[in-house]
Amino acid sequence: MRWINTRPSRGAQLALMLLPFLLLIAAYATGSAARLAENANDKLLPSLTGFADAINRLAFLPDARTGDYLLWSDTAASLIRLFAGLGISTVTALLIGMIIGMLPYLRALLAPFVTVISMVPPLALLPILFIVMGLGEASKIALIVIGVAPTMVRDLALKAQELPREQIVKAETLGGSSWQIALRVVLPQILPRLITCVRLQLGPAWLFLIAAEAISSDSGLGYRIFLVRRYLSMDIIFPYVVWITLLAVLTNFVLDQIRIAIFPWSELEKQG
Amino acid sequence: MSELIIDGVWKEYGDQIVLENVSLTVASRAFVALVGPSGCGKSTFLRMLLGQERATKGTILIDGEPLPSEPGPDRGVVFQRYSVFPHLTVLGNVLLGKELTASKYKAKLFGAARRAAIEEARQLVAEVGLSGAEEKYPAQLSGGMQQRLALAQALIMKPKVLLLDEPFGALDPGIRAEIHTLMKRLWHETQMTVLMVTHDMREAFTLATRVVAFERPRDRPEEKQRYGATITRDISIWPPRRAGELSLSSPDRDGPVVLQGPRRDDPSSSPSGDR
Ligand SMILES: Nc1ncnc2c1ncn2[C@@H]1O[C@H](COP(=O)(O)OP(=O)(O)OP(=O)(O)O)[C@@H](O)[C@H]1O
Ligand SMILES: [Mg+2]
């Protein structure tokens, strides 16, 4: 049989899925063991028990100085910023994206502007944000919005424009006004795409969040990583990185499930 | 009443002349089949009648009034593809016209008004043979069922003029014959004037009261750009078919059709229906 036609069974699929992760852990464990055998005080590749210690300390014991459980307070601080930024971006993208996609006059006005804005490197704007908005939450959330919203606006505008002309004309022959067509034809069809769009922007959003926290903050996952870097605390940095990845993977999964639950037809379309 | 008068219409796209000097008067309640080679501008002609596209020269009158410059509820349409909304169920698709007309801002109906509209929509869904599939999404329907849904969706508006662009082109002969009987019955029962583009001569002659052919009189490669297509033939079916009337000579040819037995792609008999 051709390779392109061979498919793994369910069990094999699960095994294959886990394999790279297990290999990674095994490679790490061997590397760490080798280094620790050479020098018991090596900080670069701590042992797995070292990680367990650090996780226990950060997640289940209160911090000596503040009394907070650091992992959880850091997570809460970061997630609030992340979701505030993504939320603002989503609403902006939906409004402006639909306007650009549907109304030729406003497309002429806004589309080139949004395209140019989306090319501005957001991190280059970070100093300006800190100067103008101060070092508080606002500037961090603003960085996420500036970083992800323009791309989302462009994506949704494209999606709205891609709807077959026939559908819009059909809606007109059913007596639909611009507003009604926006509400009943365009909006429901781009909402699933909006969710997908948020999923794709999770990576950039985390990037901008951590960048902002690294430079100026007193809490947050990114802040902690860059703080303990000074003491070479790999036993904290590694679990934090894994934790951030897990949070992102989970958000991604949950968003997709939400899409399938609310818009079952969008899944049918994909198969069809 | 819904008479169409098309007078000296030209359509150009940039340098290319697609249609030249098309004149046609379509009587109220006529069923006109438009035929012609691919690319000669039949769809373009239909789009102009729809108001989606404007004639470069010439006038189009509907009931003596100039044609509105955008599509509206008086002219229904079924395209070859993309005619139904993928995010709405069968019932939702048919209901949409009612909701858009009745509720200006919310575009949704509630309570008694909604129940009445649903009742009407269900009847229409049954009429096109889709009862049982009301809660399905278009992606779960076969091509033939989707086209019948598009038809029901257009008919709930009770348009004066119904424009069909190769609506049944992609269907297999069996389903097509069933849709033809349905089409005939609907034409007899409603008040609309129908214009249908088709590549199938047999379809044209079984359904229409009049068959109009578009052609390019000059079709050499170097002339393609400068000369458009126009009406070259205009055949009235004889003995004449009239909406709502049985033909005296052959009643079974034109009479309102009585349906017998279940249709091939009825949801109940279709394997793809319960996917
Ligand atoms: N938007 C457009 N811009 C430029 N040229 C166009 C446009 N739409 C159609 N044409 C041209 O007009 C001509 C007629 O196209 P049209 O789609 O009306 O043909 P048709 O008769 O419907 O063909 P078919 O039977 O294959 O559907 C074609 O040569 C096409 O290239
Ligand atoms: Mg065509």
Report on this model:
The complex is a heterodimer of chains A (272) and B (275). With 272 residues, chain A is mostly helical. Chain A has helices spanning 10-38, 48-60, 70-102, 104-119, 122-133, 137-162, 165-173, 178-215, 221-228, 234-262, 264-271. The two termini of chain A are 26 Å apart. With 275 residues, chain B is α/β, with parallel strands linked by helices. Chain B is built from 7 helices and 10 strands. In chain B, strands 6-7-8-3-9-10 form a 6-stranded mixed sheet, sandwiched between helices. In chain B, strand 7 (161-165), helix 5 and strand 8 (193-197) form a beta-alpha-beta unit. In chain B, helix 2 crosses helix 3, helix 2 runs parallel beside helix 4 and helix 3 packs across helix 4 (143-155). The radius of gyration of chain B is 19 Å and the shape is globular. The termini of chain B are far apart. The chains are: A mainly alpha (272), B alpha/beta (275). Bound molecules: adenosine-5'-triphosphate (ATP) and magnesium ion. Magnesium ion binds at residues 42-43, 165 of chain B. Magnesium ion is lined by residues 42-43, 165 of chain B.
List keywords for this structure.
heterodimer; A: 272 residues; mainly alpha; MetI-like fold; 11 helices; globular; B: 275 residues; Rossmann fold; 7 helices; 29% helix; disordered C terminus; binds adenosine-5'-triphosphate; binds magnesium ion
Mean of pLDDT of chain A: 93
Which pair of chains forms the biggest interface, and how many residues does each contribute? A-B, 28 and 34 residues
Radius of gyration of chain B: 19 Å
Got a strand count of chain A?
0
